Each structure stands twice: as C-alpha cells, then as structure tokens.
Amino acid sequence: MSSSILGRSGFHGLRALAVAALALGVAALGTGVAQAKTNAKEPQEVSFSFEGPFGRFDQAELQRGFKVYAEVCSACHSMNLLSYRDLAQPGGPFWDPKHPNISPAESPYAKAIAAQYKVPDIDPDTGDVIQRPATAADRFKAPFANEAAARAANGGALPPDLSVIARAREGGPAYIYSLLLGYEEAPAGMTVPDGKYYNPYMAGDMSSYWKGAKDKVPEGGFIAMARQLVDDRVQFDDKTPSTAANEAHAVATFLAWAADPHQVERKQTGIAVMLFLLVFTLLTYLSYRQIWRNVSH
Amino acid sequence: MSGHSKYEPKTGFERWLDVRLPIVRMAYDTAIDFPTPKNLNYWWTFGGILAVCLVIQIVTGVVLAMHYVANAGLAFNSVEHIMRDVNHGWMIRYIHANGASMFFLAVYVHIARGLYYGSYKAPREILWLLGCVIYLLMMATAFMGYVLPWGQMSYYGAVVITNLFSAFDNVIPGVGTAITTWLWGGFAVDNATLNRFFSLHYLLPFMIAGVVGLHIWALHVPGNNNPVGVDVKSKEDTVPFHPYYTVKDGFAILVFLLLFSWFVFFAPEALGHADNQVMANPLATPSHIVPEWYFLPFYAILRAVPDKLFGVLGMFGAIAMLFALPWLDTSKVRSMRYRPTARWFFFLFIAATLGLGWCGGKLPDDVVIPIGRDAVTGDPTGFTVVMLSRVLAVYYFAYFIAVLPLLGLFEKTLPVPDTISTPVLPKGGAAMLSGATASPEKKG
Ligand code: HEM
Q1: What percent of chain B has pLDDT over 70?
Q2: A267 with B265: Cβ contact below 8 A
Q3: In this structure, are residues B224 and B240 in contact, taking their beta carbons and an 8 Å threshold?
Q4: Ligand 1: distance of its center to the CA of B202 in Å?
Q5: Distance from CA of B317 to the nearest CA of A (A)
Q6: Is pLDDT of B431 > 50?
Q7: The pTM is what?
Q8: pLDDT for position A216
C-alpha cells in the first residue's frame, strides 16, 4: 500500500512543480505581451548561428560584422563599452584558438586593429592634448567628441551607442537586421518629415503625419538614420557575396556578440549545469523513494 | 509537540559545548529530530526552496556589491563591467537578477499553500504574520534592487513608485511632497536616491534573514500544519525531519534549481525588460513603464482606482488583507480539502490574482473585448483592461472581507479525518469534524 501512495504523492509533487513553472510562464507571457505594444512590424524571421542552447558564433561572420561596423556604422555610432582587445578575447571575432595563452591585450590582431586609430590623450611631459595611436587596451574610438557634436552632425538626432543595442531592443539581432534592410517608400498619404525616413520596423507615432483613416495608420515609424546598407557597400575579405542582406546579417551577429560576449560560454556552462542537476535530482529522487518506502502516509 | 530534546552529545567537545552553548542541540532539535507530519505534500517543500533562494540572493549580492558602483553616472556601466570583465560576473549577475523572480515565484506558491490549507489559523497566526512581514521586506528589497542597474525601467520604476506617496498631499497638503522629497534625498530621483536604495538593498535581506529565524521559531512551537489540517495526535502521525524531509525537500529544491538554471543560462533576460538595457535618461520617458512581473497584480489594482490616493490605499490594502486574514476566516476547518465550496472561491481567487497580473502588464485603455469603434478616431472601444482590473480587484477584496468571513458560518464541510494516520472511512464512517478544528490543541 505504501508504495502506491508514494507513487501518487510523487506524481502530485511533479504536478505541483509543473503548475508553478506554468504560472511563471504565464507571468512571463503577460509581460512579454505588454512589451510588444507598439505599432511597429514584427521583426523578420531570420535565423542566427548562435540561437538556442547549442548555438555558437560563426567566427568568420563576426569578423565580417566587425568590418561592417568599422567601415559603416562607426562613422556615427560609438561602442563605448568595448576595447580593441575584447575583439581577441575567447569567443571573439579575432580570438586565436591556436594561441590560447596570448592575452587579448597582446593579440597581434587586436594591436593591429587598434593601431589604425588615433585617440586623444594628454602628453605627460607638456600636458598638451595630443592624438596618439590607440593601443589594444583603448576603448573603440568614438566618432564624435560629445553628444552635442553627434546631434549636430545628425540633424538633431543622437545615434545611440551600439555596445548593448542587441539587448536593448525587443527582438535583438533580428530587429537590427530587419531595421537595416526594412527601408521602403512611405505609403501614399504619409508625409515624411525632413531628415527622417520611413521604416516599418521602427517604433513610433506617425498619426499626425497620416492623411488616411485614424485606425489605418500604417505600421512603423520615422527614423533619423538613412538607409546604410546596400549591395557592395562593404567588400568582405572571404568569399561571402557583399549583398545588403549578408552585410546586415553579419553586423547584427557582431552586435549580438558585443552585447553579450559571454553567451556561448554561458550556454555551454548551462548544459553542464543542467546535466549535473539532472543526475543529482534523479539520485535524490531514488533516495527519497528508498527512505520513504516503509512509511504509509 | 516540540517535546523533550533527544540530543545526546557524542564527543567530549560536544558535551563541553552543550553545557555552555547548546547550539548543536538546537540545530539537532530543529533540523534533524523535529517531528514532522508524515503527510506533507510537495507544496510544503517551498519553505526549504525559499531558504535556498535567500541564501543565493545574499551570496550573489555580496559578490555583486564588490564590483558595483552606486553612482548615477557610473552604475549602469559598472553592471556592464560585471557582465563583461569580472570573472563569471555574467553568471553571478544573472543568478541574482533571475533569483529575485524565482524567489517571488516560490513565495507566491508558499503563500497560496497557506491560503489553501488554512495554515494561517490558530495556533499559527504569528507564524503567518511573520511570513507577511518577510513578503513585505522582499518587495521593498526587490524594488530597490531593480533600481540599482540604473536603466530606463529602474529609473522610471523608482519615479512612479516614489511619486505614489505624493498622493498624501490630498489628505494633508504638503505632506505627500515632503515624504517624496525625504525618500529621494532631493527634489527628484537622482544620485542620492540611488545611494540610499543601495544601502537599504544591502541591509534589508539581512533583516529578512532575521525575520526568517523568528518565522522558523514560530513554526516550531505548534509544528507544521498538513494537508489534512488536523493536529498531530501521536507519534504515529509524524516522522523525524531528517532524513524524511531533508531528502524530500532536497529533491524539490533540485527540481526548482533546474528551472532556475534554465532561466539563468538559456533565457537570462526573458523575465526582464529590454528598456532596462538603456541607461537611465530623465529626459526620455519610455512609452510604457511596467514593473517586474511579480508586482503586476498590485500595479493593476493601483491603476484600477481612478483616484490616486485611493489607488495607493487599494494597493497597500491588498497586502494588508493578508495580514488580517487569520481573523477574517471564520471557518473551523483548516484544509480546503474538506471545504468544497470555499475551494471554488479559492481557485477563483488565484485566477483573479493571475488575471490582475495580466492586466498590470497591459495599457489601461487596451480593449479586452471589442464592442464598437470610436466615431472620431476609429479606435476599437469596449471592455477595457482597466474595467477588467476593477472586476478582478473587487473579487480580490471580496474574497477576504466577504467570502471567507461569511462562508465559514454557513458552508457545509465534508467529514474530516480524526487523525493524520486514520484516513476518512469510505462511506458513513465514524469520521468526525471535531478533530480538525482550529482551536488550540492539547499538545500530543
Ligand atoms: C532578498 C534578497 C534579494 C533580492 C530579492 C534582491 C533583488 C535584486 C534585484 C531584483 C536586482 C536587480 C537585478 C537586475 O535586474 O539587474 C538586484 C540588484 C543588485 N543587488 Fe540584490 N537582492 C537581494 C539581496 C541582495 C544582497 C544581500 C546584496 C548585497 C549584499 C545585493 C546586492 C545587489 C547589487 C550590488 C545589485 C546591482 C547589480 C545588478 O543590478 O545586477 N542584493 N537585487
């Protein structure tokens, strides 16, 4: 008799935990729905190599993505949280698995990339403001000296820092990809203000620029960034065709890495943790059955 | 029920210590030998789970505090520094951030368990009140913790919640403003606010730990309630805590950690908000300010009331209900297993609370059931989120101040078993109601 009761109580318990997990799921769903409340188009269904628990970054694509950032986006967007040496950290675009003991700051790739930039500094002997070649330890050189300069050069709009942009937008890399490629002719009846561009993936309120029915305002919003990526904008060093879609995909991948550089390490740790916990849980469950076998309850 | 201690010091040192500071004896009596009803189901494992959550938050929190910088200009980047440069900083931070959600998940299950099985009734009122105090402290801690990374939601969450106190201007003009200024340490949410929130966020968890100690003390005087809700009558009804419940709680804790780890390692920002990855900017209000999921039901109640002051009172009142509960429920039967009517009201209450949570995440004017269209704007009109919140909030309060007080007087309960060990006899058995009353028992 005891074992059948035990069996039942075991089942109840799992059900209890399942209910609890479900409740959390519902709660997450609830907040998720709330966040999606914009009139922007859902990002395109685009797949990335780093998705899912087993996903990894494609290093060649990270390098292509860095090239797109360096040659296009860095003209307007800073990435203040990244140093050149980060590019060579484990899992980064210029990580060299053949020389794992070279610290990122000593990486010849990181040093060579840094050396292409001049950064402001103070001359220790004279106190004068000087420009010196960047070292691997320096932060990515910012395109503008300050926010006012950035706005002045961009018609009053501020190009956001891209360090964490892939985590700071709903949809992440898929959103960035969709936004960069999503520019299209504004629908008839829409007056696009000067210096702005229509993009269906951008969130915003366009109702006052819309002549049609109030409940038929098209999806999307205006953005102060013109279309940046077109075919052949960036010449890739590998054989990947320089299509706008490949450029956008690569830069979205690079930005996803930059926003969360430890994500592959995180997921790999996670798999080990889950396996360990599963085995430990099973053993504990068997001990539980063993210890309770003679108790009728 | 606590009975006499069966601890026997085994080594010379233990004997020496036992007559000076019987701390090993105390640990033995609380965690090893403690007689525990043998019929506790898995809903009872959440107490242990909560203890684990508190330890996890304190350990990860102390490590975060070694790297975190409480300064409005530096806080955001210091958290990013933790995520990028500190060894395993990403893991510590994600455990702490998701740990708060897991903590609340567990506490809600734990509270619901108490509601269903009548664990708040005599002689466990103090135990229940201490639990309510822990819950309040947890809310304060989590609210202030969420401000620390100084993202957009951190900042605007702090603005919205602290501004609630200005509603007291409607009672005595000037008082509300004075309270908010005092809370902020200035005339707006700013550096001073962030610093005091950090100080308090570090302090409160240790106060929680202290109240948890009292909570466990108060538990060990009457002993555990149990799913049947009748008092322990004899040794037959109990098993020693160790190994029976250490292993059962251990199993449940591990299952819980599996869920926890899944969030930490595979979906660390699923419960968060993308806007909080943007540094706080007092000049750019986000289009939609939402609190963390665990506050949503109360946020919905706040917004359901048109008047700000009464909204605030409603929100705090919703929590006050929990404190008053032991004196609101008039039923003599503890467990809702034997209260078939009350049980339905209980399930409705859970549904209403989840529903309020859903409403809290929506915009108040969102339409739930469209009925027509606005003649001018063409927007759909009908039954809105705020109307639904009102219906649900009314039920939430009615459950405490009408259903439980009245139902206990009129409802027909099922026969309750005599003791934990004797199951109810199938039909027409000699089972009696008396055993399950909440009256203080003769200690068995
Ligand atoms: C009851 C226990 C606790 C709860 C519920 C809690 C909750 C939270 C929450 C919700 C956050 C924001 C996480 C985020 O979104 O980034 C946070 C951050 C933080 N907490 Fe705690 N916490 C607790 C205990 C502690 C303790 C004991 C300490 C320090 C000794 C601590 C230190 C910190 C620090 C430094 C941060 C800022 C870093 C960050 O945002 O990740 N916490 N806490």
Answers
A1: 94
A2: yes
A3: no
A4: 8
A5: 22
A6: no
A7: 0.91
A8: 84
The three state secondary structure string of chain B is CCCCCCCCCCCHHHHHHHCCCCHHHHHHHHHHCCEEECCCCHHHHHHHHHHHHHHHHHHHHHHHHHHCCCCCCCHHHHHHHHHHCCCCHHHHHHHHHHHHHHHHHHHHHHHHHHHHHCCCCCCCHHHHHHHHHHHHHHHHHHHHHHHCCCEHHHHHHHHHHHHHHHHHHHCCCCHHHHHHHHHHCCCCCCHHHHHHHHHHHHHHHHHHHHHHHHHHHHHHCCCCCCCCCCCCCCHHHEEEHHHHHHHHHHHHHHHHHHHHHHHHHHCCCCCCCHHHHCECCCCCCCCCCCCCHHHHHHHHHHHHCCCHHHHHHHHHHHHHHHHHHHHHCCCCECCHHHCHHHHHHHHHHHHHHHHHHHHHCCCCCCEEEEEEECCCCCCEEEEEHHHHHHHHHHHHHHHHHHHHHHHHHHCCCCCCCCCCCCCCCCCCCCCCCHHHECCCCCCC
Residue to mutate among A87, A164, A165, A176, with most B CBs inside 10 A, is A164
Question: Residue A13: which H helix or E strand, with range?
Answer: helix A2-35
Residues of chain B positioned with their CB less than 8 A from the CB of A284: 247, 250-251, 254
Atom 23, ligand 1: residue with shortest CA distance? B57
Query: Shortest CB distance from A273 goes to which of B265, B288, B358?
Result: B265
What's the CA gap between B360 and B363, in Å, rounded?
8
Q: Provide the shortest C-alpha distance from residue B404 to chain A (in Å).
A: 24
ipTM for the complex shown: 0.90
Q: Tens of pLDDT along A258-272?
A: 999 999 999 999 999
**Contact flag A28-B373 (C-beta cutoff 8 Å):** no
Whether the CB-CB separation of B389 and B359 falls below 8 Å is answered with: yes
Question: Residue B196 C-alpha to ligand 1 middle, in angstroms?
Answer: 14
* In chain A, domain spans: 46-282
Whether chain A has a CB inside 8 Å of the CB on B18: the answer is no
Point out the residue among A24, A35, A281 whose CB comes nearest to the CB of B273.
A35
- For the segment B114-124, the average pLDDT, to the nearest whole number, is 97
B369 versus B134: the higher-pLDDT residue is: B134
Average pLDDT over residues A212-222: 87
Q: How confident is the model at residue B381 (pLDDT cuts 50, 70, 90)?
A: confident
pLDDT in tens, B26-65: 999 989 999 999 999 999 999 999 999 999 999 999 999 9
Q: Rounded to a whole number, what is the distance in Å from the CA of A132 to chain B's nearest CA? A: 25
Q: List, for residues B266-296, the tens digit of each pLDDT value.
A: 999 999 999 999 999 999 999 889 999 999 9
Contact A203 B277 (CB under 8 A): no
**What is the spatial distance between Cα B434 and Cα B416, in angstroms, rounded to a whole number?**
8
Using a CB-CB distance cutoff of 8 angstroms, which residues of chain B are in contact with residue A278? 258
Q: Given a cut of 80, is residue B226 above it in pLDDT?
A: yes
Give me the residue from A13, A26, A260 closest to B354, CB to CB. Answer: A26
**CATH code that applies to domain A46-282:** 1.10.760.10
Per-residue pLDDT at B232 exceeds 80: yes
CB A173 within 8 A of CB A250: no
